[in-house]
Design goal:
Family: Belongs to the glycosyl hydrolase 1 family.
Active site: 372 (nucleophile)
Protein name: 6-phospho-beta-glucosidase
Largest sheet: 8 strands, parallel, barrel
Keywords: Glycosidase, Hydrolase
GO molecular function, one term: 6-phospho-beta-glucosidase activity
Strand content: 5-15%
Distance between the termini: 22 Å
Number of helices: 15
Number of strands: 16
Shape: globular
CATH topology: TIM Barrel
Oligomer: single chain
Length: 476
C-alpha cells in the first residue's frame, strides 16, 4: 500500500515571498515588507534592530517579490498543469485589514483571495491556507507592540471571523500560524516583536507565544462553528535533533532540544501546557499572564492535524570542543559528519524526514501534513531559460521515498505533501532570489532586476509524473 488515494500533492508559497503588490488596492504595510536584503536582515528578523518603515539605502525584496499578485492566474495554471491536488498559500493580513485593528475589512483584499481560490478550483486544486505566515500589520506593531499585546488576539479573531465566513465552501484546509516555534528564533518575523535595551526578551517571547496559542484555539473554534467540514492544523518548523555521540549528556540534550521545538505544538495538539515546559518557564523566572478561560479554550479547541516544514535534521553536543556549526532554517546546528549539505549549508538528510515523521506521529497520533520540503539551490538557466535541475529531483525523490517508507512501513497517517517554493520566490531567511526552490524559474535576481518571465525547469515534468502516479514513479 502506498499513499492514500486522496493524497494531497502540491506546492507551497507565502504571500510575502511571492505576491508583491505591497501597496496595491488598499493593502497596508506589514513587518515582512520592511525586512531588507543584506547584512542587517538577520538583526531585524530577530528583533535586535528596529525597522518599521522603508529606509534609504536598502533593497526590500517583498515589495515586488515575483509579482504573483498580478500573475496568479498564469502561475496557478502552471500548478494545474503539474497536476497539483493542493496549493498551500497564505493570506496577507494587511490586504484584508490594512492596519489590522479596523472593524470593517478591505473588500479589494477579500475579493483578491476569493478570485484566487476560485482559480485554484478551476484547475482542480484544493487551497490550503495559512492565516498568518510571518505576517503582522506594521500598525499593530507600532501601536500595540505586536503579539506581546493581548489585544492582537481580538484583531486576529476578527480576521478569522471574516475569512472563514467569506471563503466557506472555497477553503477547507487551514493553518493558524506558520512555524509557531520560530517566535523563539526570529521574533520580529514570527510575531512583530522588537526589543528595547534591558527588556526580558524570553519573557516577552513566551508571553507573545501564549497570545498566539490562544488565538489559534479561537481560530480553530470559529472554523469548526462556521463550517464543520473545515480542518485546522498547526504548523511546526520540524527536524529531529540527534545527539552528537552516545554520551548520555548528549542524548539528554537532544531530547531537551526536541522538547523546546515541540512545546507550542504540544499545547495546540494536546490542549495543555506540558509539564516539562512549565518547569522550564519556572526555572527561568518566566511568568505567563493568562486570563480566566485561556486554559479552557486551549483544552477544548485542539487542531485536527499537524503540519510541518522539514529541510534537515539537527545535531547537538554538550562537548565545548564539538562546535563546528552548519546553517539551517533560521537557526544553526552542530555539523553532522555523516551528511552532505546544500550550497547554503543546510544538511541533507532524507532519512531524517522519516525519523521526524515517526516522532511526531508517535507523540500525537494525529494525521500529519508535510507542507514545506525542498532544496534551495543556485540554478543556471540555458539561453532559453531552461534549468536542468537534476540535483533538485534527486533531493525530492530521496525525501519522497523516505516519506513513503514512513507511511508504508511505519503506518504514519499522512494527508499530503507540498514542496516549498514550487515557483521561485524570495528566500525568507536571506531575502535572496538566487536561492531557488521552484519547479518554475522566475527571471529575477537578488537586486530585483529581470523580466519575471516564468519558465518550466526539468523538475516540472518530473513532479507532474510523480503526482500522476501518486508517488509510484520517481524515475528521473
Amino acid at each position: 500500500m502506498g499513499f492514500r488515494e486522496d493524497f494531497l500533492w502540491g506546492g507551497a508559497t507565502a504571500a510575502n515571498q511571492c505576491e508583491g503588490g505591497y501597496n496595491a488596492d488598499g493593502r497596508g504595510l506589514a513587518n515582512v515588507d520592511v525586512i531588507p536584503h543584506g547584512p542587517d536582515r538577520r538583526a531585524i528578523i530577530t528583533g535586535k534592530k528596529k525597522m518599521l518603515d522603508f529606509e534609504e539605502g536598502y533593497f526590500y525584496p517583498a515589495k515586488e517579490a515575483i509579482d504573483m499578485y498580478h500573475r496568479y492566474k498564469e502561475d496557478i495554471a502552471l500548478f494545474g498543469e503539474m497536476g497539483f491536488k493542493t496549493y498551500r498559500l497564505s493570506i496577507a493580513w494587511s490586504r484584508i485589514f490594512p492596519n489590522g485593528d479596523e472593524t470593517e475589512p478591505n473588500e479589494a483584499g477579500l475579493k483578491f483571495y476569493e478570485d484566487l481560490f476560485k482559480e485554484c478550483h478551476k484547475h482542480g486544486i484544493e487551497p490550503l491556507v495559512t492565516i498568518t505566515h510571518f505576517d503582522c500589520p506594521i500598525h499593530l506593531i507600532k501601536e500595540y507592540g505586536g503579539w506581546r499585546n493581548r489585544k492582537l488576539i481580538d484583531f486576529y479573531e476578527n480576521l478569522c471571523q471574516v475569512i472563514f465566513r467569506r471563503y466557506k465552501g472555497l477553503v477547507k484546509y487551514w493553518l493558524t500560524f506558520n512555524e509557531i516555534n520560530m517566535i523563539l528564533h526570529a521574533p520580529f518575523l514570527g510575531a512583530g516583536l522588537y526589543f528595547e535595551e534591558g527588556e526580558d526578551e524570553e519573557q516577552i517571547k513566551y508571553q507573545a507565544a501564549h497570545h498566539e496559542l490562544v488565538a489559534s484555539a479561537i481560530a480553530t473554534r470559529i472554523a469548526h462553528e462556521v463550517d464543520p467540514e473545515n480542518k485546522v492544523g498547526c504548523m511546526l518548523a520540524a527536524g529531529e535533533y540527534y545527539p552528537y555521540s552516545c554520551r548520555p549528556e548528549d542524548v539528554l540534550k537532544a531530547q531537551q532540544s526536541d522538547r523546546d521545538n515541540y512545546f507550542f505544538i504540544d499545547v495546540q495538539v494536546r490542549g495543555e501546557y506540558p509539564a516539562y515546559g512549565l518547569k522550564k518557564l519556572e526555572r527561568n523566572g518566566i511568568k505567563i499572564e493568562m486570563e480566566e478561560n485561556d486554559l479552557e479554550l486551549l483544552k477544548n479547541h485542539t487542531v485536527d492535524f499537524i503540519s510541518f516544514s522539514y529541510y534537515s535534521s539537527r545535531v547537538v553536543s554538550t562537548d565545548p570542543e564539538v562546535n563546528e556549526k552548519t546553517s539551517g532554517n533560521l537557526f544553526a546546528s552542530v555539523k553532522n559528519p555523516y551528511l552532505k549539505q546544500s550550497e547554503w549549508g543546510w544538511q541533507i538528510d532524507p532519512l531524517g524526514l522519516r525519523i521526524t515523521m515517526n516522532s511526531l506521529y508517535d507523540r500525537y497520533q494525529k494525521p500529519l501534513f508535510i507542507v514545506e520540503n525542498g532544496l534551495g539551490a543556485i540554478d543556471t538557466p540555458d539561453e532559453n531559460g531552461y534549468v536542468e535541475d537534476d540535483y533538485r529531483i534527486e533531493y525530492l525523490k530521496a525525501h519522497i521515498e523516505a516519506m513513503k517508507d514512513a507511511v508504508e512501513l511505519d503506518g504514519v497517517d499522512l494527508l499530503g505533501y507540498t514542496t516549498w517554493g514550487c515557483i521561485d520566490l524570495v528566500s525568507a531567511s536571506t531575502g535572496e532570489m538566487k536561492k531557488r526552490y521552484g519547479f518554475i524559474y522566475v527571471d529575477r535576481d537578488n537586486e530585483g532586476n529581470g523580466t519575471l518571465k516564468r519558465t518550466k525547469k526539468k523538475s516540472f515534468n518530473w513532479y507532474k509524473k510523480v503526482i500522476a502516479s501518486n508517488g509510484e514513479d520517481l524515475s528521473n
